[in-house]
Every structure is written in structure tokens, then in C-alpha cells.
Amino acid sequence: MLPKEVITPASNVVRIQYTTLENYLRIADQLKIMRDFKDGVPRTAYLGVITCFINGVRIYIAPDWNIWSGYNSNWEASSE
């Protein structure tokens, strides 16, 4: 489940942090954004950050910078 502040943000910009492939896929599914990867890079990502707009809110889905060391080529979403 996404944090409450993500569902009802107080501002027009929100950052959601992910740490694992499963965590990222859960976020992508809840936001209904593309969940596919190419060579371990999420679609439209730049430095691990995916940007989308939902209901007028800019959402940044970003890795935890304390542990992120670059893209992991083993990350691939299973086809559903």
C-alpha cells in the first residue's frame, strides 16, 4: 500500500522511494504505470528516477540514494 501522503498529497509534487524490484513493481502496479525494464533500467528512468503525472500531481519514483549503486541488469518484470 502506498503511504497516505502519496494518495492525498498536500502539494503538487510527491517522491516515492523504492529499494527492491518487488517494491518498485508494487508501486508501478498501484500507480498503473508501465513496469517493463530493458537491461535492468525501468522504462523512462533517468538515474533510476521515473517521473509521471497523476491527477495533476507530479510523482517521482526514485531509488533510495543511500543504497542505490546503479542499475541492476538482473531486474526484469515478469509478464502478466
UniProtKB/TrEMBL annotation:
Which pathway does it operate in? Protein modification; protein glycosylation
Query: What Gene Ontology molecular-function terms does this entry list?
Result: alpha-1,3-mannosylglycoprotein 2-beta-N-acetylglucosaminyltransferase activity; manganese ion binding
The record ties this protein, via InterPro entries, to:
Glyco_trans_13, Glycosyltransferase_13, Nucleotide-diphossugar_trans
Q: EC number(s) on record?
A: 2.4.1.101
Q: Carries keyword Membrane? A: yes
Q: How is the cofactor bound?
A: The cofactor is mostly bound to the substrate.
Keyword field:
Glycosyltransferase, Golgi apparatus, Manganese, Membrane, Metal-binding, Signal-anchor, Transferase, Transmembrane, Transmembrane helix
Q: Which GO terms describe its cellular component?
A: Golgi membrane
Q: Is this entry keyworded Nucleotide-binding?
A: no
- Subcellular location, principal: Golgi
Which top EC class is given?
Answer: transferase
Q: How does it sit in the membrane?
A: Single-pass type II membrane protein
Task: Tell me which cofactor or cofactors this protein depends on.
Answer: Mn(2+)
Q: In which domain of life is the source organism classified? A: Eukaryota
Q: Which reaction does it catalyse?
A: N(4)-(alpha-D-Man-(1->3)-[alpha-D-Man-(1->3)-[alpha-D-Man-(1->6)]-alpha-D-Man-(1->6)]-beta-D-Man-(1->4)-beta-D-GlcNAc-(1->4)-beta-D-GlcNAc)-L-asparaginyl-[protein] (N-glucan mannose isomer 5A1,2) + UDP-N-acetyl-alpha-D-glucosamine = N(4)-{beta-D-GlcNAc-(1->2)-alpha-D-Man-(1->3)-[alpha-D-Man-(1->3)-[alpha-D-Man-(1->6)]-alpha-D-Man-(1->6)]-beta-D-Man-(1->4)-beta-D-GlcNAc-(1->4)-beta-D-GlcNAc}-L-asparaginyl-[protein] + UDP + H(+)
Q: Which GO terms describe its biological process?
A: protein N-linked glycosylation
Q: Tell where it localizes.
A: Golgi apparatus membrane
According to its UniProt entry, the function of this protein is described as: Initiates complex N-linked carbohydrate formation. Essential for the conversion of high-mannose to hybrid and complex N-glycans.
> Per the similarity annotation, which family is this?
Belongs to the glycosyltransferase 13 family.
**What is this protein's name?**
Alpha-1,3-mannosyl-glycoprotein 2-beta-N-acetylglucosaminyltransferase
Q: Which organism is it from?
A: Wuchereria bancrofti
